[in-house]
Amino acid sequence: MRRIERGAIPLQARQELYKRERVATSQEKAREEWTKYRRSVKSKVVVDALKLAVGIRQRCLYCCDSRSADVDHFIPIGIDFTKAFKWANFIWVCPECNRRKGKRFPLDPTGAPLIIDPTRVDPWDHLILDTATGYLAPRFLDNDFDPRGEATLDVLACINFESVTEGRKRVIRRYYEAIDRLLDASDSPTQFAGLAREVREDEYGVSAWFALREGATEDKFLQLRETYPHFWRTFVRLALQN
User: Is the pLDDT of residue 242 over 80?
Assistant: First the structure.
């Protein structure tokens, strides 16, 4: 799961969503209208905007591993049909994550969603990364686990499937190797270009963990910051942009 910025959609697409929303006056009508909309060419603009937000390889915004192919209603139609045609409620995800989430949408005592919406919230605010295993866990707060992190990993357990954690570990390994090459290099600018490429190609959001979160205290990244402070600042800037 990684944070992304949601872009805008053209006025004509917003008007089309509004028109459909006016017809969706019940849960059943919302489902029916949504099916019609997804089968129509008019939904292509919205789908293209969602694809653009997640990047060229179209990784699922929840697991960051599988290829996205579905529009998830973050707030499910079964929970609130009035959100069925809200642009801010659409997330581009893989079929596995979409199926697992389904109608599961736990709320806190105030009625706020407990699942992390990565278009609104930085997942690292609620999750931590075990860089040895690639496993994500909820943060531990005063006396308990972060409820949003816990609920997200409960509903979207596939985020920690072995195939996904292996992908995360592979990215982590590539960061370590890129830093080793940089620290050993006589031509540091060339080797830093390799580290910068890893950030650009990081589809798991791991760069933000190493640049801005607890990962920054790992030995390799401390050494990078102390040896090459100017490269460290660039690394942080690239991670913020990723």
Answer: no
Q: Alpha-carbon distance 26 to 24, whole Å?
A: 6
Dump pLDDT digits (tens) for 166-212: 999 999 999 999 999 999 887 788 888 999 999 998 989 999 999 99
This prediction's pTM: 0.89
What are the tokens at 140?
A: 């531990």
Contacts of 69 (CB under 8 A, 6+ apart): 94, 95
d(CA 238, CA 242): 6
Are 47 and 71 in contact by the 8 Å Cβ rule? The answer is: yes
Query: Closest Cα partner for 164 from 176, 175, 153?
Result: 153
Amino acid at 149: G
14's enclosing H/E stretch is helix 11-23
Nearest one of 36, 64, 182 to 124, comparing CA atoms? 64
Which of helix, strand or coil describes residue 130?
strand
17 torsion bin: left (phi>0), alpha (psi -120 to 50), beta (else):
alpha
Tell me the C-alpha distance between 239 and 70, whole Å: 27
